[in-house]
Structure to design on (149 residues):
């Protein structure tokens, strides 16, 4: 695959999301301490929200890490490999875990955005799991075809 602008931009965006996600996840306690001055819910439920957001951040960073792994195989022009099937399965699991963690937030701090986040991550989890099945079949067909030739 040639390194065109879209490919290069995508790689940099994934890298920025990964390292930015790490930084934000580590910074949650400080950010919430500051934000608690403006939003009383964050002051009242400081510890609980910190734990939930840090856990969500960890799984989000893991999810982006799997995307970065998959993108390396795209750059190498070798997409249909077992490692990508494993990455897609992990991404689905991470998405479901983020949705569950976010459901716990409903008891502390309910906003329409929380419901949207849950829905988005459930759909992302389902999409990743189904795509893993499709990739698994494609890898099997590719391996059989490689053996035939």
């Amino acid at each position: 695959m040639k390194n065109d602008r879209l490919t290069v931009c995508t790689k940099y965006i994934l890298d920025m999301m990964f390292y930015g996600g790490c930084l934000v996840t580590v910074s949650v306690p400080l950010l919430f301490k500051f934000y608690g001055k403006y939003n009383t819910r964050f002051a009242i439920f400081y510890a609980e929200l910190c734990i939930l957001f840090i856990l969500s951040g960890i799984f989000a960073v893991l999810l982006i890490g799997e995307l970065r792994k998959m993108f390396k195989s795209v750059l190498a022009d070798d997409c249909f490999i077992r490692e990508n099937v494993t990455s897609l399965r992990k991404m689905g699991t991470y998405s479901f875990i983020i949705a569950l963690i976010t459901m716990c937030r409903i008891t502390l701090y309910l906003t329409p955005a929380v419901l949207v986040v849950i829905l988005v991550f459930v759909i992302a989890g389902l999409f990743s799991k189904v795509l893993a099945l499709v990739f698994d079949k494609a890898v099997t067909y590719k391996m059989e075809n490689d053996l035939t030739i």
Remarks:
- The two ends are 23 Å apart (CA to CA).
- The mean pLDDT is 93.
